[in-house]
Specification:
By secondary structure, the protein is mainly beta. The protein has three helices and ten strands, in the order αββββββββαββα. Strand 1 and strand 2 form a beta hairpin. The longest helix has 13 residues. It is globular, with a radius of gyration of 16 Å. The N terminus and C terminus are likely disordered.
């Protein structure tokens, strides 16, 4: 099943929107200090006094990205976000029911949790926020892994899942943590390059390995 097919066929029950990470959804941010790490990128995002840091996998899908994000001042509270590009701009803000989700690095133990699905008016993104009890363990496993598997349960149907490359994840996550802990001050030893892709556009360099 393709990502767009999933978004069209999965049945959602709407609920009131709660407290979401500040970086999510359609707000445009200034992207700087972007650097490529094999299949991943790391970058800083800013808007006014807000400053965030992102490690993002842009390789595996033409219409989806997976990212780890952290906010200056609360670097010890990172969050995961999956973005799928939809065919059209969305007409309203919606937050939908929590869906059971499974996340796994290679053949390591499965991390269980729930995922929240979100769209926002004027944005062509379908966003997934993950809530995992052992997120720190997952982040420790990612640098040593080859692939990240994500699955969403669909009631009686088989789970819908995606696979993301972890090549370069270690370097991207290290740079994210260093940048956030350093309050975004640029390390003169680091080589900064202009963005090779914008997260908000979900540009991909690969063919994707969905549902393999």
């Amino acid at each position: 099943m393709g990502t767009r097919t999933f978004c069209k066929t999965l049945s959602f029950t709407l609920l009131a929107i709660g407290c979401l990470p500040a970086l999510a959804l359609a707000t445009p941010y200034n992207i700087s200090e972007a650097q490529r790490h094999q299949h991943w990128q790391s970058m800083a995002l800013s808007l006014g006094d807000e400053r965030h840091f992102r490690a993002v996998e842009t390789h595996s899908y033409s219409d989806a990205t997976f990212s780890v994000n952290a906010t200056q001042g609360i670097c010890d509270l990172p969050w995961l976000e999956l973005r799928v590009t939809l065919e059209n701009l969305q007409g309203e803000d919606t937050t939908v029911n929590m869906v059971p989700t499974l996340v796994r690095v290679d053949d390591r133990p499965i991390h269980q949790g729930v995922a929240e699905f979100i769209t926002q008016r004027g944005d062509d993104g379908f966003y997934v926020h993950f809530y995992l009890n052992d997120l720190n363990n997952l982040l420790e496993e990612m640098p040593a892994g080859d692939q990240l598997f994500v699955a969403f349960e669909q009631d009686e149907r088989d789970p819908w899942h995606m696979t993301f490359s972890l090549q370069g994840a270690g370097a991207a996550l290290t740079r994210l943590q260093a940048g956030c802990s350093n309050d975004g001050r640029k390390d003169e030893r680091d080589e900064f390059h202009p963005p090779t892709s914008l997260y908000s556009e979900s540009v991909s360099m690969g063919d994707g390995r969905e549902n393999q």
